[in-house]
Specification:
Layout lengths: L1 E6 L2 E6 L13 H7 L3 E4 L6 E9 L3 H8 E3 L13 E9 L2 E11 L10 E8 L1 H13 L3 E2 L4 H8 L5 H12 L3 H11 L2 H25 L9 H21 L1 H9 L1 E7 L5 H9 L17 E7 L2 E7 L9 H16 L2 E7 L6 H9 L5 E6 L9 H8 L3 E3 L8 H13 L14 H22 L4 H19 L5 H9 L6
Helix pairs in contact: 5-6, 6-9, 7-8, 7-16, 8-15, 15-16
């Protein structure tokens, strides 16, 4: 099947698969059958609270609510009320009063799912919510699958797949920056960036196809150099987005912060101090910490995943040796290392090993036990490592404010930066961008080697389609189901 785009005054042939449709193209046979049903679920947490919300969506949503809702005076017919209005009344199961409620009526298409939608605000007791939901299901609705409301919003074209995934990211956001990034994506920041690149690519795919189809009227003389400039510009944008993925991962999951040091340097005391509770066992016995301990803290709107590790030293104890090996592994993966130095003892070969592990890493040296007579000076540590040194006393809770300020400066001072640019926080998006980047490399290679224009078109199309996967255009039903299965019930 062929369709056409007009570029200037030229009619350009393009295959239907290359179209610029903004609606998802997936295997929809089973989905269409599911979309005919009316679904319902509890959309608030299943715990005692002031209010619980039961959401109903589908073509029979108004029929379901009309069977179970009665207004206070018994005269108002809920099916006849205007859209986007709220009504006070009661939910009945036959003649049994279930709960006193507020009912929000929203007619398609101006709803989250794009379908007729009803939300019942009932009392937030677990049993009360379940009784209202049971009554809804008894009167024509089916229980929703995890993420099915958002899935319907995607399938009905209310949002693309990147926005749908951002819905769950908003719910799971652990800090200010994760929430801000997720909200930006929900508003379409990733969508816009990807669409801008795809529009440039589809223009040139169409031009090449048209020239190959009608060489008498459309010339490709000198075109490869023009295309090379376009590929360079769009690949720079792809690489720019890919470059944000490391920071994006930290925004979403928190900064992986590993505490390193020799045994008895005060690592576990520092962990306890940072999280505000005695999470790690602290003793004077060297090698007390044998395994990895992980805790999350929020610092100036940023999440840190704090990881306490076994003290770095040579040991014959098999269990401790495993812990030391794990500490070395965690240091390699760390986004930030806090190197705790016992200032009351001289540096040794274990310190030398740790300082070697800091090479090329973000790190802060914590000059601990400043309440004792020092055996080493902070200037020496600064000179040996090139990293900032902060005097602290975990025992006396001194220096922690300075540590927090230093971490804050690392984030806002440019070493690790967060601003209003688009961040790639999703591993699926990163993989699709990497595939697009490889395809654009192939286009460049074909141009530089003087290959026929057909080769340009094939690889441009691969880049275009891989970018489309981020938005949910031309994706498989299995992938869609897998993504939405990770959502919570009722969303």
């Amino acid at each position: 099947m062929r369709s056409y785009l007009f570029i200037g005054n030229k009619k350009c042939r393009i295959y239907a698969a290359c179209g610029v449709s903004q609606t998802p193209i997936i295997e929809q046979a089973s989905e269409e059958k599911k979309m005919e049903t009316t679904i319902a679920a509890i959309s608030t947490a299943m715990s005692a609270s002031g209010i619980g919300i039961i959401r109903i969506s589908g073509e029979n949503a108004m029929d379901v609510i009309s069977r179970i809702y009665r207004s206070k005076g018994g005269k108002k017919k809920i099916k006849e009320v205007p859209t986007h209005t709220i009504h006070y009344g009661y939910i009945y199961d036959g003649e049994e009063l279930i709960d006193e409620v507020l009912v929000m009526i929203m007619h398609a298409p101006r709803t989250f799912t794009g379908e007729d939608t009803v939300e019942i605000d009932c009392h937030g007791g677990v049993y009360a919510m379940q009784r209202v939901l049971d009554t809804v299901l008894k009167n024509g609705a089916e229980i929703a699958e995890p993420g099915e409301f958002t899935k319907r919003a995607f399938l009905n074209g209310r949002m693309d797949l990147s926005q749908a995934e951002a819905v769950m990211d908003v719910i799971q956001a652990k800090n200010e920056y994760a929430l801000r990034s997720s909200m930006d994506q929900l508003r379409g920041s990733v969508q816009k960036a990807i669409r801008d690149i795809r529009e440039k690519l589809i223009y040139h795919i169409a031009y090449i196809e048209s020239a190959l189809d009608d060489p008498e009227h459309i010339s490709l003389d000198g075109y490869p150099q023009e295309l090379l400039e376009v590929v360079d510009n769009e690949q720079k944008e792809v690489k720019r987005l890919l470059k944000t993925s490391s920071d994006g991962k930290m925004i979403q999951e928190g900064i992986q912060t590993v505490i390193l040091g020799k045994p008895n340097a005060g690592k576990s005391s520092l962990l306890n101090l940072l999280i505000g509770e005695n999470r790690a066992i602290v003793t004077d016995i060297a090698g007390t910490t044998r395994d990895i301990l992980e805790e999350y803290i929020t610092l100036h709107g940023i999440s840190l995943k704090i990881i306490d590790t076994a003290g770095i030293r040579e040991t014959k104890d098999i269990v401790e040796k495993i812990g030391v090996d794990r500490a070395r592994e965690m240091a390699q993966k760390a986004d930030l290392i806090l190197y705790v130095v016992d200032s009351s003892v001289p540096l040794d070969e274990n310190d030398e090993e740790i300082m070697e592990m800091l090479t090329g890493k973000k790190a802060i040296i914590l000059y601990n036990k400043t309440d004792l007579q020092p055996e080493i000076q902070p200037e020496i540590l600064k000179e040996k490592t090139g990293h900032p040194v902060i005097p602290i006393s975990a025992k006396e809770e001194k220096g922690i404010t300075e540590l927090e300020e230093q971490i804050k400066d690392m984030f806002f001072g440019g070493e690790i930066s967060f601003n209003d640019e688009v961040y790639i926080t999703n591993a699926r998006h990163k993989a699709a961008l990497e595939e697009a980047d490889r395809s654009l490399d192939l286009v460049r290679n074909s141009i530089e080697r003087g290959m026929p224009e057909d080769f340009f078109s094939i690889d441009l199309m691969n880049a275009y389609e891989n970018l489309g996967k981020i938005l949910g255009e031309s994706v498989g039903e299995d992938l869609v189901n897998e993504i939405f299965s990770k959502f919570c019930m009722g969303k």
